[in-house]
Amino acid sequence: MLADDELGSKRENFQNPLPSEYIKAFDKIDSDENQELIVVEDKNFKIIGTLQLTFIQYLNYQGSSRAQIESVRISKNHRGKGLGKQLFKWAIERSKEKGVRILQLTSDKERPKAIKFYEDLGFVASHEGMKMHLNSSKK
């Protein structure tokens, strides 16, 4: 699903078998207590949604923690049916359970529908995000 849209198809490397980099990344996420990878399956156990939730300890805000939402995907056949909203409501509640003060995410500016979706959930574009892509062979 990560490669199943216009932007993802340009940056992901989906093939069968899956490249080992994805397996290594999954193993790191799975072994890190500050990472939660949420996978939604349909009644036939087919994956139809994903969300990654990362808990980050900060010094600011009086030593509080934040949660970062990444890798949100809903399969094409299941979009527009409320599954994404349910997934986000779960992530919000899970973050509250963990004592998170700020729940944050980024969205590519080329995804206006996603940005509107996040705003409708209560997210506010309060900061200007910046990224630097590094070409590192170290994994």
Put simply, the count of helices is 5
The CATH architecture of the domain at 34-120 comes to 3-Layer(aba) Sandwich
User: What profile does the largest beta sheet have?
Assistant: 4 strands, mixed
Overall shape: it is globular
- Using the CA coordinates, give the radius of gyration: 16 Å
For this structure, the CATH topology of the domain at 34-120 is Aminopeptidase
Strand share of the residues?
15-25%
CATH C-level of the domain at 34-120: Alpha Beta
Give the strand tally: 4
Low-confidence stretches: none
* Helix and strand composition category: alpha+beta
How far apart are the termini?
A: 22 Å
Whole-number average pLDDT? 89
Q: CATH superfamily membership of the domain at 34-120, which one?
A: Gcn5-related N-acetyltransferase (GNAT)
Element order, helices and strands?
HHEEHEHEH
Report the helical percentage: 25-40%
Can you list the strand order of the major beta sheet? Answer: 1-2-3-4
Written description of the protein model:
With 139 residues, the chain is of the alpha+beta class. 32% of the residues lie in helices and 24% in strands. The chain has five helices and four strands; from the N terminus they run ααββαβαβα. The protein has helices at residues 8-11, 20-31, 60-63, 83-97, 112-120; strands at residues 35-41, 47-57, 65-74, 100-105. A four-stranded mixed beta sheet has the order 1-2-3-4. The longest helix has 15 residues, at 83-97. The chain is globular.
Question: What's this entry about, in short?
Answer:
This protein has a domain at 34-120: Aminopeptidase. Helix 4 links the parallel strand 3 and strand 4.
